[in-house]
Write a structure and sequence with these properties.
It is a single chain. The chain folds into 2 domains: about 200 residues, Porin chaperone SurA, peptide-binding domain (Triger factor/SurA peptide-binding fold); about 100 residues, Chitinase A, domain 3. The protein is elongated and about 85 Å long. By secondary structure, the chain is of the alpha+beta class. Helix content is about 50%, strand content about 15%. It is built from 12 helices and 9 strands. The strands form 3 sheets. The protein has a 4-stranded antiparallel β-sheet with strand order 5-4-7-6, sandwiched between helices. Strands 2-1-9 form a 3-stranded antiparallel β-sheet. A hairpin with a 3-residue loop joins β6 and β7.
Length: about 325
């Protein structure tokens, strides 16, 4: 489930406030629609959730997803088929979840005003399309009618609001003990390999004529540095990329390209390299500081751990809630 930022939660609470969640005291009974009732649709049905049908077409990957998967796994048809099957499975579960929540909204007798839907649509048009004309043109290009868009927005509002109602922030409690226990059990996740703080003079071999840099030119820069020239001044005059500001930039040694990491690992603070010749550039490095391999302290990663644990708890509660809805709702897979 997507992680909600504070702003997102606040937005959803505002949306929820315009939905009239009024119990009408109605005993709403929705009879399930089974495939047998629609033999002409049997081959196209992926699932039935109470009185709603999910078609096979709805769960299939879109053309862009297919293209992406083929680009990644096209040479491995077995893996490609597994990825497509997993995508369809995940998509089906997402659509079942949506229909379960929509059914819950309906059976509880809740209602959503048309003005709330219209306000939301106007907000979407303003934020994502700019003008109503641009919105209409985009819908036309995608083959979506305004009524279909309105239905999608109505369902989105309901699902988001019902989810927020059942997963309110006061249900998510991450104690300091949980954070500390997670840190201790996953300490390797916070390991930082050897780091160096570098400034670099970079000469691009592909620089335009009439004077593309040569190795001799790079060596002359090194010679001047050896004679006491300021690295900063030489960088300002000769470097063809920023290569780090006056304060330098921290790099993980293993994260540097191989030619640089080998040299950086041998230099001490205050030392500069000779000419480092790579296929596309000449580099000259100045090491300003070093940090040996270490673990980030819990004080630096506490917020990140809390967010991760909060997300895990939301996912657990959501799965629990959807499971409850599923147990009391007719769901048939095909």
């Amino acid at each position: 489930m997507e992680e909600h930022t504070l702003e997102r939660v606040q937005s959803l609470m505002k949306i929820f406030s315009v939905i009239s969640l009024v119990w009408l005291g109605l005993n709403v009974v929705c009879l399930p629609v089974r495939a047998a009732s629609h033999p002409e649709l049997a081959d196209a049905i992926a699932a039935v959730v109470q009185d709603s049908i999910i078609t096979s077409q709805e769960i299939e990957p879109d053309p862009l997803t297919i293209a992406r998967l083929q680009a990644q796994y096209g040479s491995d048809l077995v893996t490609l088929n597994k990825k497509v099957e997993q995508y369809e499975h995940d998509n089906l579960e997402m659509l079942i979840r949506r229909q379960l929540i929509l059914h819950e909204f309906k059976t509880k007798g809740y209602s959503l005003t048309e003005s709330a839907i219209e306000d939301w649509i106007q907000q979407q048009i303003k934020e994502n399309y700019g003008t109503r004309r641009a919105w209409i043109n985009t819908l036309r290009e995608k083959g979506i009618t305004q009524e279909q868009f309105r239905k999608q927005m109505r369902e989105k509002i309901i699902v988001d609001a019902m989810t927020q109602k059942h997963l309110s922030s006061d249900q998510i409690i991450v104690s300091p003990h949980k954070v500390e226990a997670y840190y201790a059990a996953h300490k390797n996740e916070f390991k930082v390999d050897d780091q160096v703080k570098l400034r670099m003079i970079v000469l691009n071999k592909s620089a335009d004529p009439p004077a593309p840099p040569t190795k001799e030119m790079a060596q002359e820069i090194v010679d001047q540095l050896d004679q006491g020239a300021s690295f900063g001044q030489m960088q300002a005059v000769y470097s063809q990329t920023s290569g780090g500001d006056s304060d330098g930039e921290w790099y993980t040694v293993t994260g540097l390209r191989k030619e640089l990491s080998v040299v950086a690992a041998k230099l001490k603070p205050g030392q500069h390299s000779g000419v480092i010749d790579t296929p596309d550039k000449y580099y000259i490095m100045l090491v300003q500081d070093v940090k040996p391999t270490h673990f980030r302290p819990i004080s630096e990663v506490r917020d990140s751990i809390e967010r991760n644990l909060s997300l895990e708890e939301k996912q657990r509660l959501d799965k629990q809630w959807v499971g409850q809805l599923r147990r009391r709702t007719f769901v048939q897979l095909y």
